[in-house]
Design goal:
- The complex is a heterotrimer of chains A (202), B (402) and C (614).
- With 202 residues, chain A is mostly helical.
- Chain A is built from 7 helices and no strands.
- Chain A has helices spanning 3-7, 23-49, 59-62, 65-91, 94-125, 133-164, 173-199.
- Chain A starts with a helix and ends with a helix.
- Chain C is built from 17 helices and no strands.
- Chain C is globular and about 70 Å long.
- Classes of the chains: A mainly alpha (202), B alpha+beta (402), C mainly alpha (614).
- Chains B and C meet through helix 1, helix 2, helix 3 and strand 8 of B and helix 3, helix 7, helix 8, helix 9 and helix 10 of C.
Chain lengths: 202, 402, 614
């Protein structure tokens, strides 16, 4: 074998990635790994400062579980809905895609709305960022999660519009899949935050 | 294969490196007066313990250094090649060798680790041998020292008895600082809302310099202090004279500023008082009136000074606002005084937090234009004239003599 | 959002080849990893010179006791900016220069996984750097130390925008690093040429890959800490305000959970560079390849478990002290393995003494010293004497200058011909090396001694009579000479720039893929994607051919697909910077500024996402 043997022409282009996983999908997974550390730090901060506030109100006085449980359930269902939407996109079933993606968006939007309502209610009751360490760490943690949900809603809405315009054929389902991965992550983070903040409020 | 020149050079290099070790040892041998803040010249049990540890580590580091750098230099000279040399043997590794050079460092590290862990537990222990407890409070940019046992407070110059362990309980009134007297002990940070501890025993009488070691703002560089290790007799005399400042009525009432939240200043009430003076009353938490002086049974000092130096100085001290931040008495000083305690400032060897020698000229200059000497310090330039500053200096000197 | 560099669909071929791109616009819109690498290099070297200048001012101030060359404020600003500049704007992006230019080539790819994201990373880095530097003409340079310990950074003790420039600037730079880390992680996993198995990758790629993992996992932690500080300062929270129960120690933990991996982020790429250079100039494969890979992984793993060795003086108690002391000592073992393997690589070889080898050997020699003083820090009780003194300053300059900068310089001499098609001057290179080695040691070795003699760090002056004088004089003279050595390098670059291209494709008898393609490479790197059969593919090829390979011909690139240039990455980067500028000026523009900036950013991202990637 000569020089060419070591460096011979494999393919003119990379027809596939090395692992067979789409680059964007791998990148989202990588990004999610990084985001785990982000939320781990925020949750750790919340826990470290839990009960360290020098003045009230306390989590037990403020947090209301019923409404947030409902929001949590919607968020969880939205994860299922986006899976169904993706399934529709991959099979070329546009109706399935649009209905379930629309449902996902509704759930996500409701969750964001719930959080806005909750925040407003708390501010009205006298809990702001400045009130005490609970206020600061609560708003920081749930606020950053809410920001992530909002970005997810915007992203899914963009995909929704392309789907409505018929520009999401099965070969482009990856566009939805990566958004859905991010969406699942945002839901999973909430599954940690909900018990840590709300269920363990005492 | 003998390689004359490289071998010689290698020996020269290795020799040079060994010189470094020699240099450290030599430095340690120098007179401590030349290096009054040196960790290589321990004069306390804590510092001596960690210095011993350091010498063990330094020994191993030197051995490793000489061997590894020696091997590197040997290889450089031994395997120098020319462009047209034949291709050397293509080895990819050697499992035995690789295991050996993983294990040998592990063994050396284990030998360092054992004394390290032992020393960690000693260093973190709480002394039980009747230690002298001192509260240390860091301020931007000076140190407050309080002796609950004697009910006295001072600043920037901490007197301790030789041979008796000192147990420091430390905090800060503002930002994070670090208390460090290299000849006596390693450093320990001080935090708001969190008490840290340090102990050491001075082995010999001396004047040991220390310095804040955690960056704490514009004048971090000028946040030094001194520890004066006295003989037990001298120390008793020092305590007595400081307690005697409680009789001063010349100071006017120190106006305590509200203590910043979290300042861990709590004088322990009912502290044992060794002298014949009345015991200090526990400090009230709130604004305190002029330290209610314990009526001394054995002093005949007049309550109000008549000496003209004292009268003039006292007047300035009151009228120029000094009294707003500083106390001239060491007894029953309330928590949260803004400025350093000035009891016996006239006898201290350094001023401005251990930075300047306490000469008349320096002290007058410092009083007159503190912002020039130590820019950013809390004390403003008060607009004193040269003469007024000198009067205050004379006043402090006179008070110290009483 | 972004698509792969090398398209999947057989569209977008250039039937007549690609004309070389020239002009300013082609640089602004470039998505070519090699051009981005060069941009990183030029920018970072400029910042490196600025950081060096800051260091020289610091050294001049400390030359004499009670010196008044700098005011205390200026001194504090200088050492803060020196640390911040060197870490975030010099060493990290200098490493990124080589990531960008060489990771794709070394793994046999035509570009990174996301070329536009790569451009975005660079522009955010540039603008973040300029954001920090903008504090200089405004006289608002950060002055709280690169570590920004709470609660000195609170509004009460640090009023003014100085801390904001630092805090917001680091957040901008963090976005750049994270975007780049996602990109290179994906590139290394997914863009390798056929046959380029993970355990065939060059060690430089491996160490860079581990660095990306460290970036991904450590930067979010500092981001959270910076956000908390930002909320404290701008929005009135009390995360680090003791009066309201906040704990300044929390900052230290978050900072060092990031800060210690950051140390390896700074040094691992350098380990990689040295591991490429030593075999080539020893004409012998790397000794213990697998041990090199796994020791790198082990170092990175341990790097997340030793952060509190920066905090022994905080009084954590004996159990924590023991844990972190032993963990730190453990790191010496994989590090030692690396040093022995480098020496083992040279042993039995035929050492070709060219400038890159000089710097590589200088690296090994200096890193040994830095490693040994590192083990000394692990001895927690004595660390109480070392920490926050010049002993520590000596230690980390031995690993970051004696280590990283020596290695990056070695890399520059090694890869310059490939990047620019011109050989740097060997004679000047050797003068550069000897002056740098001697002046480096003159600058930093005395710091060990003066630290042990009790000189704390970060002090703008010291009184006479403590025995510090002579060492500080040596250090200052050394520092000035060290600055001179960098000017020689600069002169060498300029001189080389002005001469005609003279570098062959393979000037050093290299072992890896970059030497198989023209110097400088054409935009698509490889006319045909190589197939790799071994760890040293080029040596294998040359051995099979029985001699050097023919000089590769430049081709038109006909039929080779290239990603489209784009200026939306730059626009999005401006959007990011605008958001943080709006935060900086929040008192003035309130929420309006932020809303406008976010809108601009989102607009740019949408334009980017819907633009054909090519």
């Amino acid at each position: 074998m000569a020089h060419d043997a070591a460096l011979d022409a494999g393919h003119a282009l990379h027809p596939e990635t090395t692992t067979g996983i789409d680059n964007r999908k791998l990148a989202i997974w990588t990004f999610i790994g990084s985001e785990c550390m982000f939320f781990a730090s925020l949750i750790a901060t919340y826990l470290v400062y839990k009960g360290k506030s020098l003045s009230g109100p306390t989590p037990a006085e403020m947090l209301q579980i019923p409404l947030v449980t409902f929001g949590t359930a919607l968020l969880l269902f939205s994860s299922l809905f986006v899976v169904l939407a993706l399934n529709g996109a991959q099979r070329g079933n546009r109706r399935q895609l649009i209905i379930w993606l629309g449902m996902t968006l509704v759930c996500g939007a409701f969750f964001v709305g719930m959080q806005v309502y909750e925040f407003q209610h708390f501010v009205h009751e006298g809990l702001t960022l400045k009130t005490n360490l609970f206020g600061a760490s609560f708003y920081l943690l749930t606020g950053f999660h809410g920001t992530h949900v909002t970005i997810g809603v915007l992203w899914l809405a963009t995909v929704f519009v392309t789907a409505l315009r018929g520009k999401l054929p099965p070969e482009r389902a990856m566009n939805l899949e990566i958004a859905a991965l991010y969406w699942h992550f945002v839901d999973v983070v909430w599954i940690v935050i909900f018990p840590v903040v709300y269920l363990m409020k005492d | 294969m003998p390689f004359e020149t490289p071998t010689l050079r290698r020996l020269a290099r290795v020799g040079g490196l060994a010189c470094l070790l020699a240099l450290v040892v030599a430095l340690a041998g120098c007179s401590p007066d030349q290096y009054p803040q040196s960790a290589l010249h321990p004069r306390g049990d804590f510092a001596r313990m960690v210095d011993g540890l350091f010498h063990q580590v330094l020994f191993w580091a030197t051995v490793v250094f000489v061997l590894v750098e020696g091997a590197l230099i040997y290889v450089i000279f031994r395997y120098r090649g020319k462009p047209d040399d034949p291709e050397p043997e293509q080895t990819h590794g050697n499992t035995t060798l690789e295991i050996v050079w993983t294990m040998v460092p592990a063994i050396i590290l284990a030998m360092i680790a054992v004394p390290t862990v032992k020393a960690i537990f000693v260093e973190n222990s709480v002394p039980t041998n009747n230690p002298l407890t001192v509260q240390v409070i860091g301020h931007q940019w000076w140190w407050e020292f309080r002796y609950p046992e004697y009910g006295i407070t001072t600043a920037n110059e901490l007197h301790i008895p030789v041979g008796r362990t000192v147990s420091l309980r430390m905090g800060t009134s503002d930002v994070v600082h670090s208390f460090w007297t290299p000849q006596l002990a390693g450093k320990r940070d001080v935090f708001p809302n969190r008490e840290t501890r340090l102990w050491f025993t001075a082995e010999a009488p001396g004047y040991y310099r220390g310095q804040c070691a955690e960056f704490c703002g514009i004048q971090h560089a000028k946040m030094a202090f001194h520890i004066v290790a006295d003989s037990p007799e001298q120390f008793d005399a020092y305590v007595k004279s400081m307690q005697a400042t409680g009789t001063l009525t010349a100071t006017g009432a120190p106006r305590p500023a509200p203590a910043p939240a979290g300042t861990p200043v709590k004088l322990q009430g009912g502290a044992v008082v060794k002298t014949g003076l009345g015991g200090p009353t526990p400090t009230p938490a709130g604004p305190a009136p002029q330290a209610a002086p314990a009526a001394p049974a054995d002093t005949t000092k007049p309550a109000a000074p008549t000496d003209p130096v004292l009268v003039a100085g006292n007047k300035l001290f009151l009228s120029k606002g000094c009294v707003g931040c500083h106390a001239l008495t060491a007894v029953n000083v309330p928590a949260g005084m803004v400025g350093p305690n000035l009891a016996h400032i006239g006898t201290r060897r350094h001023i401005a937090a251990g930075m300047i020698e306490n000469t008349d000229a320096n002290l007058a200059h410092w009083i007159r234009v503190p912002q020039e000497v130590k820019k950013g310090v809390l004390m403003p330039n008060l607009g004193l004239t040269e003469q007024e500053a000198q009067q205050l200096v004379a006043y402090f000197r006179a008070l110290a003599k009483q | 959002m972004a698509t792969t560099a090398v398209g999947h669909a057989p569209t977008g071929y250039a039937p007549h080849g690609h004309a070389p791109k020239t002009g300013l616009w082609s640089w602004i819109t470039t998505v070519d990893h090699k051009r981005i690498g060069i941009l990183y290099g030029a920018t970072a070297f400029l910042f490196f010179l600025i950081g060096g200048l800051e260091a020289l001012l610091v050294r001049i101030q400390l030359m004499r006791p009670d010196n008044t060359f700098l005011s205390p404020e200026t001194y504090n600003q200088m050492f803060t900016m020196h640390g911040t500049t060197m870490i975030f704007l010099a060493v990290m992006p200098l490493s990124a220069t080589f990531f960008n230019f060489f990771i794709p080539i070394l793994i046999g790819a035509r570009d990174v996984a996301f070329p536009r994201l790569n451009a975005f990373s660079y522009w955010v880095f540039l603008l973040g750097g300029l954001f920090l530097m903008a504090s200089i003409p405004l006289g608002l340079m950060p002055d709280q130390g690169w570590f920004g310990y709470a609660n000195l950074t609170s509004n009460q003790y640090s009023p003014g925008l100085n801390v904001e420039f630092w805090n917001l600037g680091l957040q901008i730079l963090g976005i750049s690093s994270l975007a780049a880390a996602v990109n290179f992680f994906t590139t290394v996993i997914n863009m390798r040429a056929p046959g380029m198995k993970m355990l065939r990758m060059p060690i430089f790629v491996w160490m860079s890959f581990i660095t990306q993992v460290l970036l991904l996992l450590s930067f979010p932690v500092i981001t959270v800490a910076l956000i908390m500080l930002m909320f404290d300062r701008l929005f009135g929270t009390h995360f680090f305000v003791p009066a309201s129960g906040g704990d300044p120690l929390m900052w230290q933990h978050l900072f060092w959970i990031f800060g210690h991996p950051e140390v390896y982020i700074l040094i691992l790429p350098s380990f990689g560079i040295i591991s490429e250079i030593l075999p080539v100039f020893s004409r012998k494969p790397l000794f213990g390849y697998a041990a090199m890979v796994f020791s790198g992984i082990f170092i990175a793993f341990l790097g997340f478990g030793v952060w509190s060795h920066h905090m022994f003086a905080t009084g954590m108690g004996p159990i924590a002290d023991t844990f972190f002391a032993l963990g730190t000592m453990l790191i010496a073992i994989p590090t030692g393995v690396k040093i022995f393997n480098w020496i083992g690589t040279m042993a039995g070889g035929s050492l070709q003494f060219k400038t890159p080898l000089y710097f590589a050997i200088g690296f090994v020699a200096m890193f040994i010293i830095g490693g040994l003083s590192g083990v000394m820090h692990a001895v927690a009780p004595h660390d109480l004497q070392q920490t926050d003194t010049y002993f520590v300053v000596a230690h980390f300059h031995y690993v970051l200058f004696g280590g990283s900068i020596f290695a990056l310089t070695a890399g520059a001499y090694y890869w310059w011909p490939k990047m620019f098609g011109r050989m740097l001057d060997e004679g000047l290179g050797k003068v550069h090396f000897w002056l740098m080695l001697v002046s480096f040691n003159l600058t930093f070795f005395p710091m060990h001694l003066v630290g042990l003699l009790g000189m704390p760090r970060r002090t703008y002056t010291y009184p006479a009579g403590l025995g510090f004088e002579i060492y500080n004089q040596m250090e200052t003279i050394g520092a000035l000479l060290l600055g001179l050595s960098q000017l020689i390098f600069l002169y060498n670059m300029i001189k080389t720039w002005r001469k005609p291209a003279d570098a062959p494709a393979d000037p050093w008898n290299g072992a890896t893929l970059e030497w198989a393609i023209p110097s400088p490479p054409q935009e698509w790197n490889f006319n045909e994607i190589p197939v790799v059969h071994s760890r040293d593919p080029l040596w294998e090829a040359k051995r099979e051919r029985g001699g050097p390979l023919p000089e590769p011909a430049k081709v038109s690139g006909a039929g080779i697909h290239l990603p489209n240039p784009s200026f939306w990455p730059l626009m999005a980067a401006i959007g990011v910077t605008a958001i943080f500028t709006a935060l900086l000026l929040i008192e003035k523009f309130h929420a309006v500024g932020i809303i406008v900036a976010v809108a601009f950013f989102l607009f740019s991202v949408f334009k980017w996402a819907f633009e054909p990637a090519g």
